[in-house]
Amino acid sequence: MKNPLDLPILNPHAAGVDVGSEKFFASVGGQEPKVFLTVTAQMRELCRYFQAQGVCTVALEATGVYWINLYGALEEAGMEVLVVNGAHCRNFPGRKTDMKDCQWLAVLHAHGLLTSGFVPPGDIRRLRDYLRLRDDLVSMAAQHVQHLQKALDRLNVKLHVVISDITGVSGLKIIKAILAGERTPEKLIELCDAQILKTKRAAVLESLRGLWRKEPLFGLELALESYESYQKQIARCDERIAEVIGQLRGGKPTPELGPKTELRHNAMIMDDLQRSLAQIYGKDLTQLPCLNQSTVTMLLAEIGQDMSRWKDWRHFGSWMAVAPSSAQSGKRRRREKRYLNRAGRILCRAVQCMAVGKHTWLASFYRRIRAKRGAKVAITAAAYKLAKLIYLVLTQGWEYVEAGIAKYQARVRQQQLKALQKLARELDFVLLPKALATN
What we know:
Blueprint: E1 15-19, E2 23-28, E3 34-37, H1 40-52, E4 57-61, H2 66-76, E5 80-84, H3 98-110, H4 122-154, H5 159-162, H6 169-179, H7 185-188, H8 194-207, H9 214-249, H10 273-281, H11 293-303, H12 313-320, E6 327-329, E7 332-334, H13 342-354, H14 361-373, H15 375-396, H16 405-426, H17 434-437
Parallel strand pairs: 1-4, 4-5
Antiparallel strand pairs: 1-2, 2-3, 6-7
Helix pairs in contact: 4-9, 4-11, 9-10, 11-13, 12-15, 13-15, 14-15, 14-16
């Protein structure tokens, strides 16, 4: 008699691959594994082997970057590929080898027990590669800004203490003039912007009286060359990003645009970027609080255009790991530690930039939560609110209109008043305004 608890095999030709840096371990339906090298010829041989076995769906473990090339090859061969988290499909104790891992993956996949992680389409993956490379270049350029500051300190030129950014127009002009041989503070200060001279002239003048030694000057020269070299590479990345965005834009109609959002330091310099992003999404996301054009571009590379991957805004926030999470067993309930993915980190960085704002309700919400729970919780909570807005704008066509802090604070006051009235009723008290109570 058949055991009613036996799981049905949905696809006996489902395959599993344990991905390594040197070898692929492949199994079809949990059968004896075959081993292939990770070189291109062997990777194509693996695809032909799967096709000969009638395989149409393959599960891969997301191991570092090693799965990416195999994913592309299997996708080109017309197979459905699932990229799964190895922690979600652990083997039984005592079964941990690469050979057995791929068999276990194939068995779970054949029973339909594996869920794929989010892998965007090929054009979005291209944009993602360029943007992540650009992010790395920005980080490396920032290291050379520190080298510039260190060299200036060695020269006892305290310019970076007085002005906010030595890699701005005024700072770079002064550094280049110093390297060209200019030492007179009165001449160097004339290279500053008029706004700096208006408010900080005396402080800047004193900061430019340095100790001109050869060794720190040489270090300043090398740091500037390295910084400018990375800026040129970032500009080349921007060209490639603009090319991919142009392909994604296609001939889609342009929605109505609001005021142009100001671009910040290290922002992408592209013509008509806001219009292109609005055409790709069908909505102008830069109208949402704390989202500028660069942030929306990075978000596009992480979530793509198709929001049907997430069933609702709660699922979307949970995928980013900004939603509250808990685990329950019996009467015990505990918080689960979760880690932000790149999309979640993008939203959290945007919230941190917005936190000092004085004109948006989201900034007021952030400050209210920060006063109760601290900055870390407030950043995540505000990012969850922002994720909800993004999902609803893109899926339901919401037109976002900033209500302002006053309206938000009035709504919070009404909620607090209702809570007080409810508590007064429960305790059999009467709640009166202060003006009436004093009479």
